[in-house]
Amino acid sequence: MNFLTKSQSFGAVIGIAVMLAAFSLIDFNGWWSTRTLSNVVQFTAILGLIAMGQALVIMSKEIDLSVGSVYGLTGVGFITLEPALGVPGSSIAALLIAATCGLLQGIAIVKGRLPSMIVTLGGLFAFRGLIYVWTGGSVHAFAEDARIHPVTRMFGGELFGIEAVVFWLIGIGIALNILLWATRFGNRLLATGGSVDSAESRGIRTDRVKIATFVLSALLAGFAGIVTLADNPQSHVTLGDLLELEAIAAAVIGGSLLSGGRGSLIGAVMGAFIVVSFRYELIALGAPSSWFITFVGIVLIVAVIFNQYLARRVGHNV
Questions:
Q1: Residue 194 needs a FRET pair 20 to 30 A away by CA distance; which of 21, 255, 297, 314 works?
Q2: Whole-model pTM?
Q3: pLDDT in tens, 266-305
Q4: 179: number of CA atoms within 13 Å, CB side?
Q5: Could you confirm whether domain 8-313 is CATH 1.10.3470?
Q6: In degrees rounded to 5, what are phi and psi of residue 128?
Q7: Cα 189 versus chain centre, distance
Q8: Do the strands 158-159 and 162-163 form a parallel or antiparallel pair, or are they unpaired?
Q9: Where are the domains of the chain?
């Protein structure tokens, strides 16, 4: 039990257990249906990709409020650029757009010594505005040959009856966990989030670390946008609206401390599962959409308090 409480994702494990028990009592047949679980797993994978990027940023003691708009801008770019560049070309171009968004924000934050909340809030509005300017308010649909292109199916198809995005989440999740826990970059990231002054005294270029996390966050959000539209190539200028709040909630529920230096990528995915599951169950029960936003706010506050309590128990300064 002591080992579990030291785990950053302990709160998410408890949350999932309580949630599944409650759903089983309230709506057993509706919740444990193949259709419901399939949809929940698919959208958990999409939100999980974004939440992992958000967790990396939070571990560096920053925050990224722009991921919803980056998700939308990259997805729109993927579809809009396809007629000129083809599916492979538009995929690469769209990811370059996402990386540029993260890079520009990261540079503005570390070089301009500006609060990440302010810079990325500006990014949220700026990138959303770019979508409207670029598309004129409407996004063209994918052509039929683009929908059946091998690259499109690789991103949005199925394998053994399971959505491709689930396999992408597993593969990227494994790679990011190796990056975080088995490389110098991971050590430098956690050291930067724990104490910038201490990290710099050890020769760590904290500015580069933070810029890298913003680029990774934007790339993951952009990739999530691409796989979303590859599966269902119908887009709108509001694509990804408010998704940043869900990503932050998922990362925090999963054990990421807003004070930096501590977090879990697996926990972020579990947090995404909790957020998506509650959305689907509230819809199934016919609850007003405002209930979901209320749930996210309450759970976010509870998760912050619980994570700080666990961090103090294991001797982490918050």
A1: 297
A2: 0.92
A3: 999 999 999 999 888 888 888 887 788 888 888 888 887 8
A4: 16
A5: yes
A6: -65, -40
A7: 18
A8: antiparallel
A9: 8-313
